[in-house]
Amino acid sequence: MAETDQVAASADRLAAMNLSDSVQNHAFSDRVLILSIVGRPDGGAGLAGQRVRAGGWVKTGREQGKGTFAFLELNDGSCPANLQVIVDAGVAVLSKLVATGTCVVVDGILKVPPEGTKQRIELRVESVVHIGEVDPAKYPIPKTKLTLEFLRDHLHLRSRTNTIAAIARIRNALAFATHSFFQEHHFLYVHTPIITTSDCEGAGEMFQVTTLISEAEKLEKDLIKNPPPSESDIEAARQLVTERGVAVKQLKDAKASKADISASVVELNKVKESLSKLEERSKLKPGIPQKDGKIDYTQDFFARQAFLTVSGQLQVETYACAVSNVYTFGPTFRAEQSHTSRHLAEFWMVEPEIAFADLQDDMNCAEAYVKYMCNWLLEKCLDDMEFMAKNYDKGCIDRLRMVALTPFVRISYTEAVELLEEAVKGGKKFENAVEWGIDLASEHERYLTEVKFQKPVIVYNYPKGIKAFYMRLNDDLKTVAAMDVLVPKVGELIGGSQREERYEVIRERIMEMGLPLEPYEWYLDLRRYGTVKHCGFGLGFERMILFATGIDNIRDVIPFPRYPGRADL
């Protein structure tokens, strides 16, 4: 959407809003959202005189007039702005209300404050419905400015801070924008599995899913508590089976009654079953089951090795090759021992897949999607973006506008390397050497997008040796139809490709990379039966939030970060 269209749409919405309308309770709560008061074009002034119930957490509170009343700045998370609340000492014990973090629900009348104050509306409290008290001496999130590093040690409370709440709303907006974009373009949302038996990236840095360890521990405890039967126990059971068998034979030979023979057979079957259980139990050995000196995964829960997914791409391709346009959006996992500000062990990916489409279509879709998200934030989340600009990155809003309005530069990998080599000749120093065949490092990507072009850049046609087996081999047999979208602040935001649809070529690529064919037979079937040209990409959702907000560390833009040594909550 063009910027002029956005402004017009915003103006239409404001015009449609009748400022004399009474404010409504939330549909599923007996309170009014603070957003519905202070988020109005008039800042809530048009609601003066109305009685409302509001609830939230105290951001700041102070007693005034020698303890005769208190000012509270109340926030319920619906928007970054607070509602000023005034409570008289005759209504409640003020000392219980003013501590930062206190939860209060109050009934009162909205009034226009005196001239000269920044608030457009305030709430004069008539009664206090609820107080969730806080001991200021123990509360770990005081109103003083706290570092994001400190807040990582208090994940369960950090969403009460202005920064983390703003990031949460921005994250929510980007998720909503993602679904809106793909739904508007007739993509089907497909849920791909978290547990997989395929390594999409071929990197091997995957979390394994197994019950072998817990089952081995359980067995070990059981064997200590109930030791396996001895050889003499088994021999005695065998002897009993023999005796019962002889008894049955004797009854048959003596032409005993049918009832007597049946009862004897029942006894024989019981001792046979008991012997079978004893023999089975005698085979139990402590430890993880092995076969031919290797772990026997046939004894595992899925009867084979299984992992947490690193990507839903391979699975979602099965739907693209049947219903054409699809996308998946969910958590992915990487067991990489990385402590950088750019890596997480659990992160979210948006992965569309488009049938009957090539690399050019892939790049067009990626560019349109990124622009759509930037426009969405500018139109629907500007107050939170203004908070980020004020407190973290002055240029974040300008960066969103630039990306939303600027055509992305498109250059081949070979051209990108040539530009980097020219930069080196001109005196630019990179930590990582530049030559054709390397995987571009973050410093190379950021030089291209931040320094050379100062706008988003799409690099395409990468060397096949540094890309995954499923990317389509180009006619030069040296490069594949891959593309990366590079943006200022984070470097690579999107990685994608046209997929290899030719059966013989992709089979050869799998073997070239030393991967076993068996786990990918189902993937090869997509090429055996009704193969189609198709493409797709993956966007790292947290990286998009880093790009949008200007936050430096990826651990601060996901609600519950997981990284080496930490998996709190």
UniProtKB/TrEMBL annotation:
It comes from Hibiscus sabdariffa (roselle). CDD domains: AsxRS_core (cd00776), EcAsnRS_like_N (cd04318). This is asparagine--tRNA ligase. PROSITE patterns: AA_TRNA_LIGASE_II (PS50862), WHEP_TRS_2 (PS51185). Pfam families: tRNA-synt_2, tRNA_anti-codon. The lineage of its organism: Eukaryota, Viridiplantae, Streptophyta, Embryophyta, Tracheophyta. Its EC number is 6.1.1.22. Residues 233-289 form the WHEP-TRS domain. Belongs to the class-II aminoacyl-tRNA synthetase family.
